[in-house]
Write a structure and sequence with these properties.
By secondary structure, this protein is α/β, with parallel strands linked by helices. Helices cover 38% and strands 15% of the residues. The strands form 2 sheets. A 6-stranded parallel beta sheet has the order 5-4-1-6-7-8, with helices on both faces. Strands 2-3 form a two-stranded antiparallel sheet. The protein is globular.
Length: 179
């Protein structure tokens, strides 16, 4: 589908856990509050299907965000995700804990994030990814930057990369009647 570099495909082929920052990665990074101070977020539906496809194909998915957010909890519940972590102060420690619980190494994990809070997690994973709109200090320290911006398909692009690298893309397409 997409002509990925061989080294990127090799990294993605080993992924058994895909971790996603939320604000600026699965959303466009805007924060919206109503008059009562309740926060709302807009999520991309294609990103959501990508997350489900990973889980349905045996790749664990985790949302890891530094912000306390009922919208993130609701999105995780909507997508039936087992690993939703909000108000995380140390994303690397959270990621290490997930890897330990799943019995995998951090080299078998991917993380996608857009800003400085993500750097510790990005530094320890086998596949470090940033959306196109990531802060330059983050974008310069990852293995791959997605073509799309956060909230506009960046999450799905990571999902598709992993599925293709693991040789699962044909089965996914077949499930939807395409060969």
């Amino acid at each position: 589908m997409t002509p990925y570099p061989a080294d990127l495909l090799a990294r993605a082929s080993r992924i058994r856990l895909a971790c996603f920052d939320v604000d600026g990665t699965l959303t466009n990074g805007d924060l919206t509050y109503d008059a009562d101070g309740r926060e709302s977020k807009t999520f991309n539906v294609q990103d959501g299907l990508g997350l489900r496809l990973l889980e349905e194909n045996g790749i664990a998915v985790a949302l890891i965000t530094a912000r306390e957010s009922s919208a993130v909890v609701a999105r995780g519940r909507d997508l039936k995700l087992s690993h939703v972590h909000t108000a995380v102060k140390d994303k690397a420690a959270c990621l290490r804990g997930l890897c330990e619980a799943l019995g995998i190494g951090t080299d078998e994990a991917a993380h996608i994030g857009d800003d400085l809070h993500d750097l510790p997690a990005l530094a320890i994973v086998g596949l470090a990814v940033a959306p196109a709109n990531a802060h330059p200090w983050v974008a310069s320290r990852v293995h791959w930057c997605t073509p799309s911006r956060g909230g506009a398909g960046a999450g799905r692009e990571l999902c598709d990369l992993i599925l293709e690298a693991r040789g699962l893309d044909a089965a996914v397409l077949g499930r939807f009647g395409a060969a």
